[in-house]
Amino acid sequence: MSIQRGIFVTSSVQRLLRIWGWPLAALITVGVACGGPGNEQSTTGPPDADAWTVAQREEDARWLPILATQDLAVGVKRIAFTLEGLSANEELPTVRVSLFELDEDRENPVSVQYARFISYDPSVGIVAHGHANASVSDRALPVGRGVYVVPVRLSAAGLWGLLLDMSSDAGAETVRLRFSVRERQAAPRVGERAPSVESRTRGDVSALVELTSDPEPEPGLYVLSIAEALALERPLLLAFATPAFCHSRTCAPVLEAVKAVWREFSTEISGIHVEVFENPDTPTRLVEAEAFVAWRLPSEPWVFVVDAEGVIRYAFEGAVTEEELRSAVEWVVQEGSG
User: Fold this and answer.
1) Could you tell me what percentage of the chain is helix, strand and coil, using 3-state DSSP and rounding each to the nearest 5?
2) What is the per-residue pLDDT across 164-193, written as a single tens digit (0 to 9) for each?
């Protein structure tokens, strides 16, 4: 374990930073609040008021950050946010992210780093559909050109905040985001055993259209149930996604990344795609799949990389790139053969 100016950076955090594509040097910890013109607070209210309480976007602000990560709990997490108001041809602003544990210190950030942008495929759409109940998947997540992502270590439950310094040639703005962190996330966590549940396979249906909303499904991802795959005692790449009905419009590109990585490692790992809905061929009255409910997933998509002993080693909520998945799978395969 290494120490970097007042914060503990464990080996697991270092490994996740490498998987996520950030060098360790990108995580800068500081002991004082950030200064300089780029950190002027966009606030209203009395001068001595708590900026985190009264922070608002200025009326003429260009961008409105919206948190896209649903399941925030103590531990290492990959937080994603979008910028509402970011037009299609506009230069992408650089976003510096300062993380605050607001219950402890509202002046001095825990860490400072630059967010990475993952673009969406503009051709990805969403099929008109209805739900049989008020399922969590009904909640529409922000849709735009893409998402900014940052890896963070949330050390305690409570109120946390992100101070976002956004800048481009068009101007600079600073906005705060507040969010609550729970002791435990709803979804299965890294380090836990993967829930061994039954999921439908191509042997349960007459055609893949009954099993997935992917217009170009990879048949190999529907051979095994989750329980069957875990019983094989080999690594597993597991995706929960609904390409046709995904409000965030990230399911389709994420599933494409899963397909590409699984094809590359198919002789060494098992691969499964679980459609979020039990009846994708009946879009007017969708019912959540039993396996999706059993895994307690509050959003979609999710991708898990499970080792040969059935332990979750990586969990990605929302957008994830092919490169990130490949690195995660490579690590799990190498650990298993070491």
Assistant:
1) 20, 30, 50
2) 999 999 889 999 999 999 999 999 999 999
